[in-house]
Amino acid sequence: MSKDHFEHKAGTYEKDDNRVSNVGNIANSIIASVSLDRNMQLMDFGSGTGLLLERIAPFVKKITAVDISKSMNAQLAKKQASLGCEIEILEIDLAAADICQKYDGIISSMTMHHVKDTEAMFGKFHALLNEGGFIAISDLDSEDGSFHTEDTGVYHSGFARDSIAQAAQRAGFRDIEVKDASVVRKPHGEYPVFLLTAKK
Ligand SMILES: C[S@@+](CC[C@H](N)C(=O)[O-])C[C@H]1O[C@@H](n2cnc3c(N)ncnc32)[C@H](O)[C@@H]1O
Predict the structure, then answer these.
(1) How many helices (H) and strands (E) does the chain have?
(2) Atom 4 in ligand 1: which residue has the minimum CA distance?
(3) Angle (CA) 63 139 94, round 5°
(4) What is the pTM of this model?
(5) Reported confidence tier of residue 2, pLDDT bands at 50, 70, 90
(6) Which of 31, 44, 110, 177 is most buried when burial is the number of CB atoms within 10 A of its CB?
(7) SS3 of residue 79 by DSSP
(8) Spatial CB neighbours of 101, under 8 Å, sequence gap ≥ 6
(9) Which CATH number fits domain 32-185: 3.40.190.10, 3.10.450.50, 3.40.50.150, 3.40.50.720?
């Protein structure tokens, strides 16, 4: 992604109730699936306007919000001070950038389908985690390509659960689990969403 694919959407991104409730379901699924504590420092990959991290913030010490989109980061910056933990915003393309910091966990919602090489991204997640750290990655199950009605830099029409689990395993993750997290309801269809959790 080199251009800001979300420039025209960022200002109204949270006006879509289905989107907001989907990310709420994903957050609840993460909270129920991984152990969070107030000493933890997490990364939210593809944090957007902060819909996911604002729900996870009260349970941890710090979240580094990683997003390539200037316009989405600007929306997050407006609420940064009112969130439940320290928030750092990194405006980078995680597929290309190198970060020295390590994290106790990496969370992500609805972003992996924007990543061309998902296995390489799992490898990057692995390298960015402390020993015993977790990933909690949520995205669309395989769909027929009708989910997106415009091009926001989409590389995958969702994922087959066994394929994405195998990609995480090849990157070195263990204790991999994939479960139902949510369903996005649109006028033209329903789109199930999974949560993949695993440990380094
Ligand atoms: C569909 S939005 C999801 C935002 C948020 N996680 C949510 O669920 O509301 C995907 C976000 O991922 C970001 N993104 C996509 N590829 C990225 C990359 N390689 N590095 C950093 N951010 C990326 C986009 O800019 C966008 O804000």
Answers:
(1) 5, 7
(2) 48
(3) 50
(4) 0.97
(5) low
(6) 44
(7) helix
(8) 64, 128
(9) 3.40.50.150
